[in-house]
Amino acid sequence: MRILKKIFSRSRPEEGGIFFGEIEKIIGFRPLNIEGYTMAFTHRSSNKTDEKGNPISYERLEFLGDAMLSSVIAAHLFNQVPSGDEGYLTKMRSKIVSREHLNELGRDLNLIRFVESKVPTQHFGDNIHGNIFEALVGAIYLDAGYPACEKFINARVIAPYVDIPKLEGKVISYKSLLIEWCQKEKKTFHYDVFEDNGISGERLFGVKLSIDGKVVAKARAVSKKKAEEKASHRAYFAFQEKINTK
Amino acid sequence: MRILKKIFSRSRPEEGGIFFGEIEKIIGFRPLNIEGYTMAFTHRSSNKTDEKGNPISYERLEFLGDAMLSSVIAAHLFNQVPSGDEGYLTKMRSKIVSREHLNELGRDLNLIRFVESKVPTQHFGDNIHGNIFEALVGAIYLDAGYPACEKFINARVIAPYVDIPKLEGKVISYKSLLIEWCQKEKKTFHYDVFEDNGISGERLFGVKLSIDGKVVAKARAVSKKKAEEKASHRAYFAFQEKINTK
């Protein structure tokens, strides 16, 4: 709380200020106890300690969040792919919780804007995004237990990103899948790309994908190509039934 | 169910026979659905398949159980050792879920007696014990969810075995700790060792540890030394308060 007041002293300080509201939006429920979330965004360089002198930083929460991610994803794959053996399940999980993918998840939520650090956040490598994402999962576990963690991972990892055909390499590009479908269905499509640098100052690209003149999906990523693919993926899910049955 | 009837056709076939009752004793609650437990004890060599032709064996459940063990142990360590950093927590967890330790857990519960296999169980290596233990944890998750899993791991792994001072290498031998205490307190002690081969035909040793003529702990293990250490550990926990305060 002490830390929060310092960072976000502008509003509702009794609830942790802006941070409290923003975290609520991200995690999808009202935090019961803000402490773990504060820890999830505290970098070691802040040199904070608890009353017993133990350092406060997101690193321990990363360990916890990583474990929760692994078990929720394991259960999901186990249930979704009854034909997959142990080796297959292990491989699929490691693709889902890959460093690159976790970084993408953290970056998409722009979690870095909350980080308290004595080192400027621009100096961190790419992995800070994934590390903070894992720490956030750990904080959710501490705050509200396994079911809340499961719900968050379902909403923020599995539903938008876990795509078994693509992970298996059966679908290489959603953009080509979507274009093919549009051509077959005689629909027009347009990718509107723009630079969108966000708060953190990173170079990012935004994409709006329109079909028949209507925006059907938006996405943001580090490259134009990735943003287009992400938007196509989202559109694909929106149209999945139509695409598969035609 | 079909498989169970074949293995354990002697009693209560409508409930899965002896197996049902034995599993209940081991897991500490009445199974809601016996199917997962059957799978946890089916070796690949049985060549069973489900109605869709997917092979039934404990290997996929091992993957699931391993994930559940990792996350329950992670949460336990996170809460118990607030001073431990990420590296420490990772190291401690890998000691707890080491192959050797999992094998010991499975062997202690004599899980191998339930295994259905075309290969004689004596031909399996040591790892079968740990693999089946992991699969059992996976089956508990399928049957009754994460909280049941957590409860089982607490009762069967954490409470009897997870001993942070020993894992940290601060306590090397509970036998020497106990002997030292007996000598200081002028108590007599006696380790009564006997061969105890159990149902599976493995060579095992049983130990009864008496203090002042009264049996205070029993244990069974693959070597005399291990059985003595295990009995000492159990006695240590029974006497912990006395030993630490004197």
TrEMBL record, chains A, B:
Its EC number is 3.1.26.3. It is an enzyme of class 3 (hydrolase). Residues 20-145 form the RNase III domain. Mg(2+) binds at residues 62, 131, 134. It comes from the Bacteria. Pfam families: dsrm, Ribonucleas_3_3. Belongs to the ribonuclease III family. Digests double-stranded RNA. Involved in the processing of primary rRNA transcript to yield the immediate precursors to the large and small rRNAs (23S and 16S). Processes some mRNAs, and tRNAs when they are encoded in the rRNA operon. Processes pre-crRNA and tracrRNA of type II CRISPR loci if present in the organism. NCBIfam families: RNaseIII (TIGR02191). This is Ribonuclease 3. It comes from Flavobacterium magnum. The gene is rnc.
